[in-house]
Specification:
Layout: H1 19-43, H2 51-65, H3 70-82, H4 100-117, H5 124-131, H6 153-167, H7 179-188, H8 199-210, H9 225-232
Helix pairs in contact: 1-9, 2-3, 2-6, 2-8, 3-5, 3-6, 4-5, 5-6, 6-7, 7-8
Length: 242
């Protein structure tokens, strides 16, 4: 499928000035701005410069392994791309993902990011997913202390995928973990921090990685953000269930 760049010159006769078309273009441009923010944050993190695209790929694969409806898969794809958009800086304590200071810094960043995203009505559902990615299964997380299935499913998946992915990069004196080691860190906190039911699809994902089946994720071209707008379905917001 050929993608058409928004920046490509358009013949005068091809302009569509209908309100719906103009509204879609404006929404795509605002989404593009948020994606650029996420890209800049990744660029400021030399230890993990592809965090957004890698987490987006992970959550999408987990959703597929869980046979979730396509709408939830699309929301997760975009939430993964934007999950760090509220970080004003990469916390130094991220060298230890289990440090309480790391958890607090990431939770505050997620709240700020959610506030930014809510400026677009089409992204309010995505904002909620991102805001609650640092909740814990036992209710001791942030920002609201939600527990169990009161935490949106997409948020549970996103938080687990981001934690799993962070372990697989070298940061400071911490060496990069193998997928098997990162899975073990996640499994150790099942029932405390993570939804125990998510460990099985994450384990299946690791098996796919071991078999070399997962393809390397591709960062979307920001100049073609309209395709992402439609592929995520954010122009058709839906309520999310726990």
């Amino acid at each position: 499928q050929q993608l058409v760049s928004l920046s490509r010159p358009t013949p005068p006769h091809a302009w569509d000035n209908s309100p719906d078309k103009l509204g879609t273009n404006l929404t795509a441009n605002r989404l593009q701005a948020f994606l650029r923010m996420a890209q800049r944050i990744d660029a400021d993190d030399p230890a993990n410069p592809e965090a957004s695209v890698l987490v987006s790929s992970l959550v999408e694969t987990i959703a597929q392994l869980m046979n979730l409806p396509f709408g939830r898969l699309r929301r997760l794809r975009l939430a993964g791309m934007l999950h760090r958009v509220g970080l004003t800086e990469i916390p130094a304590t991220l060298v230890n993902p289990d440090d309480p200071r790391t958890h607090m810094a990431l939770a505050q960043g997620a709240q700020f990011g959610a506030q930014l995203l809510r400026s677009m009505s089409e992204l309010r559902t995505i904002a909620r997913i991102i805001e609650h990615q640092n909740e814990w299964w036992n209710g001791k997380g942030q920002p609201e202390g939600l527990a169990g299935e009161a935490i949106p499913l997409e948020s549970r998946i996103l938080g687990l995928a981001a934690y799993f992915q962070e372990w697989m990069v070298a940061r400071g004196e911490r060496p990069a973990s193998t997928p098997e080691e990162a899975l073990a860190f996640c499994t150790a906190e099942a029932g405390t921090r993570w939804d125990p039911a998510l460990i099985e699809p994450l384990s299946n994902l690791v098996r796919l990685m071991q078999a070399g089946i997962l393809l390397d994720p591709v960062r979307p071209q920001l100049s073609n953000s309209q395709w992402l707008l439609h592929s995520t379905g954010i122009d058709l917001p839906e309520p999310i269930a726990p």
